[in-house]
Amino acid sequence: MTYQEVLENARTCIGPFCKACPVCNGKACSNKVPGPGAKGTGTVAIQNYDAWQKICINMDTICENKPVDTSFELFGQTFRYPIFAGPVGAMKLHYGDKYDDLEYNSILVSACADAGIAAFTGDGTNPAVMEGATQAIKAAGGKGIPTIKPWDINTLKEKFALVKDSGAFAAAMDIDAAGLPFLKNQTPPAGSKSVEELKEVVQAAGVPFILKGIMTVKGALKAKEAGAAAIVVSNHGGRVLDQCPPTAEVLPEIAEAVGKDIKIFVDGGIRSGVDILKALALGADAVLIGRPFVTAVYGGAAEGVSALTEKLSGELADAMAMCGVHSLSEITREVVR
To answer: Each residue of 163-175: pLDDT tens digit?
Structure first.
């Protein structure tokens, strides 16, 4: 199955909000929420994509002609590529009736593991979502990263018990989900966390902990102080705060501030292997990609995930070779301009 066939199949079942566009750039869905759009004016998702397109890469083929190694190590695990599927939830609400969250995570986690990468899984008010996600990760030998909303500490501890049973090699929290409407007015309260509260969360996790939703140097330093093993530079695809900057714009300063101390992921509008190379050159260790993996699952289930991963990894390897870098460790700021 080709990626083009995946897109064509997705268009038959993914509506009505998502259009499975040839390039997922945020324009067709704009501010459609429910749907995959961004909050308010709907411009942040568009700006995320556009920011990567404004960055150019420097070609250099006067170098040794040898194979490219795209392998990536994280917390004792080796992956074929520095690519992870981002956490997505409320599938029927935003993407159509074909899959619920449990079905989506089940397909995504195993397919990503088979493709040599890993999926971050979503969370929700329904406890079955986290239960299903961690079961899928357990079935995949722990090759997945359960991503938990910023609930109260007692709820978090219950969910961390599921994480432990799954054998997951890491856990994450999308701290920026504090801006999602369904988290407001919860009892007990869910939302923003202080550094001291996060220290307790990190301790309770029991595995390397990733904080997703970091958009400033100040936030990255607080995540480091709390004990996070990694951060994700992310504005939640523009879905939690209108008028915030694109991730490509803030990544370099965050990487310069904390890149030697913790792992750095980035997401938001990354749509090709060339974009991935740009992100790595600007200081990221790996990338998360969200919406396109949804399209891949809806358009081809496990085969769709494989097709998308092959597309992205092939583009990354080709771009690396044409820039004269043959391993991830060789990628520096000199690759981009």
So the answer is: 999 999 999 999 9
Per-residue model confidence as pLDDT tens digits over 165-202? 999 999 999 999 988 877 777 777 789 999 999 999 99
Question: Which amino acid is residue 87, in one-letter code?
Answer: P
| Binding site per annotation, positions | 212, 234, 236, 239, 267-271, 290-291
Annotated binding site for FMN: 212, 234, 236, 267-271, 290-291
CA atoms within 13 A on the CB side of 259: 18
Binding-site residue set for glyoxylate: 239
Catalytic residues: 236
Angstrom distance (rounded) from CA 281 to CA 276: 9
pTM to 2 decimals? 0.96
Express each pLDDT in 109-153 by its tens digit. Answer: 999 999 999 999 999 888 999 999 999 999 999 999 999 999 999
Query: Could you tell me the sign of the dihedral formed by the alpha carbons of 65, 70, 71, 72, in that order?
Result: positive
What domains appear along the chain, each with residue ranges and CATH number? 3-14+39-335 (3.20.20.70)
Q: Which pLDDT score is estimated for 248? A: 98
